[in-house]
Amino acid sequence: MEYKCFSHPKKYLIDHLNNVKKIGLSVFDSKILLKLPIDADDFKEALEIALWYHDFGKSTKYFQEYLQCSVDNQKCSYGELRNHSLLSAIFAGYIAYKKFKSKDIRLACLVFICILKHHGDMDNFNDMLVVDTKKWRVLEKQWDVIIWHDFNELHPEFSDVKNCIDDELYDAYDSIEWNVVWYFVNNLMFSILTYADKNDVIFEKPFECATSIDTSVVYSYKKANFIVDSKINIIREEAYNLVENTLLSNLDQSIFSLNLPTGFGKTLTAVNTALQILNSDNSIKRIIYALPFTSIVEQTADVVKNLYGYESENILNVHHNLAEIKVKLSDGYLDADKAQFIIENWDKPFIVTTFWQIFYSMLSNGNSILRKFHNISNSVIILDEIQTLPYRYWMLANFLLTNLAETLNCKIIILTATMPMIFEKDKICNLIGKGNRKKYFSIFNRYSINKIILDGLYLDELLPIVKTHIIDNPDKDFMFIFNTIKSARDFFFKLKEIFVNHNIFFLSSRVLPIDRFAVINLIKNFSGRKILITTQLVEAGVDIDFDIVYRDFAPLDNIIQAAGRCNRHCRKPKGSVYVFRLKNHANKYDCEYIYHGLLLDTTLSIFEKVEKLDECSLNDIIDSYYQKLKNNSSTNESSELINSIEKLEYKGIKEKFKLIDDLPSYSLFIEKDINASKILDKFKEIREIEDPFERKKKFLQIKSQFYQYVISLPMLSNDAKYSYQSFDEMGSFKILSKDLVQMLYKDDVGFIVDTNENFL
């Protein structure tokens, strides 16, 4: 049979639909032990309808002529008549309705909206089912010029299709019960459809990634590299073995907690725990290791690379905004656009990524981010440094992760030194156990937390205290953590004036990523005495070690995380952490710019009762702190989001879920050296490329290098707006050209225009 319709230039529509169906059904067939609210065969049939008919609307004369015009580089005047998603959706929705009206009409609703939005973002479910009169007029014109030849099937009357969609499916929303499981089912269908569609467009043939990984690598790595010859290593090894044994006795559980002190080797223990789950349960196929910040994503990725060596290229995807767009398959490295597809869709068995990616993959309306949702199923999800999740989302996280584990056959590992009360104790398997947790926290006594002047002091009052302390301890390394960049930078300059010949380092988000990583590596490998001035960006997971730490007032878990950088490896005598509360000249505490009042008040109530906290005594204090937060915090934001999830209100989810506050900001590329100039020249060349797809492909090749020279700046002050207006603009980026770098960017403190710098 000779086909007449094309889906893309030089690709027959029927071939595209066949490929998408084959890819999508293969993806679904790989899913194991899903607990869907309908029969799996019925879901598969509905999915097949969605896959096969998703581009049916391209079979109109209007679209075919539009496609030919684009090939010939000619203008086409058909406007909305050439659109295909809605026509595809009403036809597929009609077929699905006829198929499932006596079983579950919800499947027809899902088919309709997944096809409707397969090139766009999800909206509120009820709104997506509405087709207004104007659209029906367009649809009727399209219906009259469908080229039925390729489909070779009897087609229904347009009036029958219209009545089905207008009446049956629209009315179904109010008459049928929806819930979180159906929300997952809809995301699953949408994810598989958009993934399969994009896959066929990008790849000439379906690619094959590694599907299994060596589960014994941690054992082999430890045997080759670790010597259990010290007290701390003996304790670490004991905890490691305890976790593995507890896991193997509780493999029927779905949610686990791994609560160990900072510096206890949690990363290796967590990775081994996930690998043992894979080894024991053949339905679990993937590890997703998520962390709050990109700096520790890379640090954790390095651990995985060390474990697997060269093999890591075949099994590991690192996914965050600064990640290198580079993917190796068995036959070599992929082009940038193909590599990005695999990275963004988590198509390898070991993923290291951010909290932003994992949570927005479940709580988003975005097409590109929902596309990987299907790859969350049959996974071990490790959530490291879970205490950074805002407490307003504790109830939401409990609800989401519990249902995710149940519905999509996932295992969840919650990992932290300070375990927030997200789950009730009887709903989660503690891999350490209360008694052993207390034991390990009591054994570790690497530091004490001391308070100094919590009723407030100015920077100039802090300086003489610090000066004396540094002089009196010439063999000690010091770290100072401030809540605002302005205070950190001012303190850095003042301290440099006092200690001219000392090695004093600075870190903040105003320092370029390429310089930040260099400073951290220098600190880790520096043999002489060092002093670091920084903001709270070093707290969660960054492997640096100091003898004495000063921390501006913050919530208790932040203070404990900061303390985790003090005598981290227990190689020296007991370290000291000093907590102070800094005031600015407006008589406002710096901490109030960053943290919620409830967190600060709860922490202050603890410090009002004690002068000093030893690490060995923190176990009960942490529990008390989180219990007070849980008792006094509002659940309104979580409740509203849960309500939106259970009604499939995607627009509401997008508006309500803010893992990171969306503050007005802009991205600034800083041309600070020869390498930056070369990258900027390439960026300029790429912007001249007319073809948008080719332009994107070329940018992906330099993206990770490009973003090493980019910082994000808030637009909340007049100074910030002035600097924003004064820089050259290139696409969505502002450019600090090399002739201005010397004036506005310093190697020691980064970007120095006085913006409202009450941020990391």
Strand order in the sheet with the most strands: 5-8-4-9-10-3-11
Helix/strand class: alpha/beta
Low-confidence stretches: 755-760
Shape: globular
Counted beta strands = 24
Classify the helix fraction into a percent range: 40-55%
Strand content: 5-15%
Number of helices: 31
**What is the CA-atom radius of gyration, in angstroms?**
28 Å
- The first-to-last residue Cα distance is 63 Å
Average of the residue pLDDT scores:
90
Q: Tell me about the biggest sheet?
A: 7 strands, parallel
Provide structural commentary:
This protein is α/β, with parallel strands linked by helices and 760 residues long. It has 31 helices and 24 strands. The protein has a seven-stranded parallel sheet with strand order 5-8-4-9-10-3-11, with helices on both faces. The N and C termini lie far apart (63 Å). Mean pLDDT is 90; it is low at 755-760.
